[in-house]
């Protein structure tokens, strides 16, 4: 199996073979939580207007998305797993409802990776399941695309997720706790925990950095300008450790010591 690592929008456009589009903060973490909560299908679009049109067609659709990290007008929520979980705790029912996503990085990658033979979307929450699902296929070529910030600037978390998936594709041991601890200490993650990007609540950080939380891969099939994303169960993922950040977000938004 040949494994290539690329990044950003150009990397998605050129990606070939089995392609994994990676966005940890926050698009495909949100997809994974939505799928785990029963949303069917998850639909990814590149333009906010396409989301509005999907709601016309599917009035029970739930719309989640951002531009420049800010929630989109006319959408039900931002691109935020904590906002999603809060809404569900408050009575929002997701089971059997389409969940439409539009973001500046992840959903762009899945829509524009048109050379892909087969596409998955991934975050740390389902990195192990994604790798194990692909290993079953014994593909000749896999391309891992780290979408980064706004699909224009590489980010540590997406590169780390690609590293984890590559290790599991090769059958190597991946030191999850150590590598996630190093990620937690980066300027990027500490800045997000400190609330430096206002539309990005610090409570999203631990939800996005929970590793191997879900035992399903998310396969995406493009139908015109919409990607239809559905979970594929990979029970073997449960054989690998799950790692949840052990430094909870405190009242100041900073991780406690
Ligand atoms: O809003 C998001 O989830 C991210 C925030 S950041 O730009 O990565 O800091 O936006 P994205 O669409 O992943 O660029």
Automatic annotation (TrEMBL):
Reactions the enzyme catalyzes: (2R)-O-phospho-3-sulfolactate + H2O = (2R)-3-sulfolactate + phosphate
EC number annotated for this UniProt entry: 3.1.3.71
Cofactor: Mg(2+)
InterPro entries: ComB-like, ComB-like_sf
Family matches, as Gene3D superfamilies: ComB-like
Keywords annotated in UniProt: Hydrolase, Magnesium
Stated family: Belongs to the ComB family.
Protein name (Swiss-Prot/TrEMBL): Probable 2-phosphosulfolactate phosphatase
Naturally occurring in which organism (per UniProt): Geochorda subterranea
């Amino acid at each position: 199996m040949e494994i290539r690592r690329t990044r950003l929008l150009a990397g998605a456009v050129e990606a070939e073979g089995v392609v994994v589009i990676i966005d940890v903060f926050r698009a495909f973490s949100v997809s994974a939580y939505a799928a785990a909560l029963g949303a069917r299908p998850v639909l990814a679009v590149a333009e906010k207007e396409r989301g509005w049109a999907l709601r016309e067609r599917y009035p029970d659709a739930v719309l989640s998305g951002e531009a420049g990290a800010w929630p989109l007008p006319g959408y039900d929520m931002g691109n935020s797993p904590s906002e999603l979980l809060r809404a569900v705790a408050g009575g929002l029912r997701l089971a059997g409802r389409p969940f439409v996503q539009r973001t500046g990085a992840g959903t762009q990658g899945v829509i524009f990776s048109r050379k892909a033979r087969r596409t998955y979307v991934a975050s740390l929450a389902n990195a192990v399941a994604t790798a194990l699902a692909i290993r079953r296929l014994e593909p000749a070529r896999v391309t891992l695309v780290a979408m980064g910030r706004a699909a224009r600037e590489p980010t540590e978390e997406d590169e780390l997720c690609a590293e984890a998936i590559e290790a599991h594709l090769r059958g190597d041991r991946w030191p999850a706790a150590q590598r996630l601890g190093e990620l937690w200490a980066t300027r990027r993650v500490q800045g997000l925990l400190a609330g430096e990007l206002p539309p990005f609540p610090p409570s999203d950080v631990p939800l996005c950095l929970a590793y191997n939380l879900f035992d399903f891969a998310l396969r995406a099939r493009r139908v015109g300008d919409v990607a239809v994303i559905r979970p594929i169960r990979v029970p073997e993922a449960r054989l690998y450790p799950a790692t949840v950040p052990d430094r909870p977000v405190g009242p100041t938004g900073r991780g406690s010591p």
